[in-house]
């Protein structure tokens, strides 16, 4: 990036200040160029910088109230929000610093403009004085010329009248006409002298006016050269400041982009799940409880895992059984909730569990029919087998043991010994 430093503008400003101290001996410029320069200066200053009144109101602004991440935002996204907030505050502070720098540039340009304005006033006053003197002498010279021409015409008329009278007139009339012609000639001579003197004075003032005008134009040209050079350098510096500010803003926003690169959506979701999860399984459904079954078995038993797997399949496999047993087993078809290790995490609906089947002392039973197991938790039996009943289930399925093997069999297939 090309940069024009402050040295060129500073040198010109210093030279301009030194010339301003020299007084009236310094060259000045033309009035039209001065007026044009003032208008250009004012337009440039209005475009270049903000006003001091507006700069006085600039204050660092905290974005914590306007840009805030959600209180429960995931950690990496929260860090990105915090980084964005911080970098935007840094950008605002850098913009305020840029505004202050532009204000200093404005102050220097205003001082330069005021110095040139004072210098132009001095030379404009000199030009006004010389111009007024020149106009006054010109008017006086024109009046002297008019008087001189009139006197010359009067002298010519008197001379012609004297010639006519001297040829045919009397002696007295001739003398009178001769005296009048002499007086008119003397008046014409005096008018000629005054007219010539006025022209000489006018020429002297005109030469002075011309020299002063030439000197003033040269000075105005030099002033305009300095003004254009300083304003060009000021614009260059202004563009450099803005471009550097853009680079600085991009560097600050790059910090936000780096933070965003480290933001992982999957990690944030996993973190949120670990922090806010209430369990791994949904609450268990409310089981159906038959009123009459509850009357049959009112005694409460310790909660346990009720056999439910393959319940419908077992009923379809029963060839024999009492109607009461079948109705009881059908009413218990609904699954009972299974306790899990996350029972304290998920909030479940408090439901009184159905009372468990009564636990009876182990007794020996004989199998009346053959039964082939249809699930892994069932037991194969043959007619005549002696079985030890561990638990008589209300659903019609009994837990039995034979030769160290335990499983479910239909209770209607057994008879007590």
Automatic annotation (TrEMBL):
This is Proline-serine-threonine phosphatase-interacting protein 1. The lineage of its organism: Eukaryota, Metazoa, Chordata, Craniata, Vertebrata. GO terms for biological process: cell adhesion; endocytosis; inflammatory response; innate immune response. Involved in regulation of the actin cytoskeleton. May regulate WAS actin-bundling activity. Bridges the interaction between ABL1 and PTPN18 leading to ABL1 dephosphorylation. May play a role as a scaffold protein between PTPN12 and WAS and allow PTPN12 to dephosphorylate WAS. Has the potential to physically couple CD2 and CD2AP to WAS. Acts downstream of CD2 and CD2AP to recruit WAS to the T-cell:APC contact site so as to promote the actin polymerization required for synapse induction during T-cell activation. Down-regulates CD2-stimulated adhesion through the coupling of PTPN12 to CD2. GO terms for cellular component: cleavage furrow; cytoskeleton; lamellipodium; perinuclear region of cytoplasm; uropod. Residues 99-133 form a coiled coil. It is a peripheral membrane protein. It holds the Pfam family SH3_1. It comes from Equus caballus. It is found in: Cell membrane; Cell projection, Lamellipodium; Cell projection, Uropodium; Cleavage furrow. Residues 360-417 form the SH3 domain. Signal peptide: none annotated. The gene is PSTPIP1. Residues 76-268 form the F-BAR domain. InterPro entries: AH/BAR_dom_sf (IPR027267), F_BAR_dom (IPR031160), PSTPIP1_SH3 (IPR030777), SH3-like_dom_sf (IPR036028), SH3_domain (IPR001452). Keywords: Cell adhesion, Cell membrane, Cell projection, Coiled coil, Cytoplasm, Cytoskeleton, Endocytosis, Immunity, Inflammatory response, Innate immunity, Membrane, Phosphoprotein, SH3 domain. CDD domains: SH3_PSTPIP1.
């Amino acid at each position: 990036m090309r940069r024009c430093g402050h040295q060129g503008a500073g040198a010109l400003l210093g030279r301009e200040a030194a010339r301003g101290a020299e007084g009236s001996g310094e060259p000045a410029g033309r009035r039209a160029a001065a007026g044009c320069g003032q208008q250009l200066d004012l337009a440039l200053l209005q475009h270049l910088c903000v006003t001091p009144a507006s700069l006085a109101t600039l204050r660092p602004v905290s974005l914590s109230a306007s840009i805030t991440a959600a209180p429960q935002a995931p950690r990496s996204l929260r860090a990105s929000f915090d980084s964005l907030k911080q970098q935007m505050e840094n950008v605002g502070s850098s913009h305020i610093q840029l505004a202050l720098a532009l204000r200093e540039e404005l102050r220097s340009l205003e001082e330069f403009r005021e110095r040139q304005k004072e210098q132009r006033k001095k030379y404009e006053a000199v030009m006004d004085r010389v111009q007024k003197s020149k106009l006054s002498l010109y008017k006086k010279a024109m009046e002297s010329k008019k008087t001189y021409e009139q006197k010359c015409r009067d002298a010519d008329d008197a001379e012609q009248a004297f010639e006519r009278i001297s040829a045919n007139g009397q002696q007295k009339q001739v003398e009178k006409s001769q005296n009048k012609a002499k007086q008119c000639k003397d008046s014409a001579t005096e008018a000629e002298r005054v007219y010539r003197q006025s022209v000489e004075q006018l020429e002297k003032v005109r030469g002075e006016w011309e020299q002063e005008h030439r000197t003033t134009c040269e000075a105005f040209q030099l002033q305009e050269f300095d003004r254009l050079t300083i304003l060009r350098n000021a614009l260059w510096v202004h563009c450099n400041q803005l471009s550097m500010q853009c680079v600085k803003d991009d560097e600050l926003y790059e910090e936000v982009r780096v933070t965003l690169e480290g933001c992982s959506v999957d990690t944030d979701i996993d973190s949120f799940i670990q922090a806010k999860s209430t369990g791994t399984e949904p609450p268990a459904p409310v089981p159906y409880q038959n009123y009459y079954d509850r009357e049959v078995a009112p005694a409460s038993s310790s909660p346990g895992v009720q056999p439910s797997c393959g319940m419908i399949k077992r009923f379809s496999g029963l060839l024999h059984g009492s109607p009461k047993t079948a109705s009881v087993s059908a009413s218990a078809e609904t699954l009972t909730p299974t306790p899990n290790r996350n029972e304290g995490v998920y909030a479940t609906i408090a439901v009184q569990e159905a009372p468990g089947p009564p636990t009876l002392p182990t007794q020996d039973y004989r199998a009346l029919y053959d039964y082939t197991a249809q699930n892994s938790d069932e037991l194969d039996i043959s007619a005549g087998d002696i079985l030890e009943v561990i638990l008589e289930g209300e659903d019609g399925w009994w837990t039995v043991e034979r030769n160290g093997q335990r499983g479910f069999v239909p209770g209607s297939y057994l008879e007590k010994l």
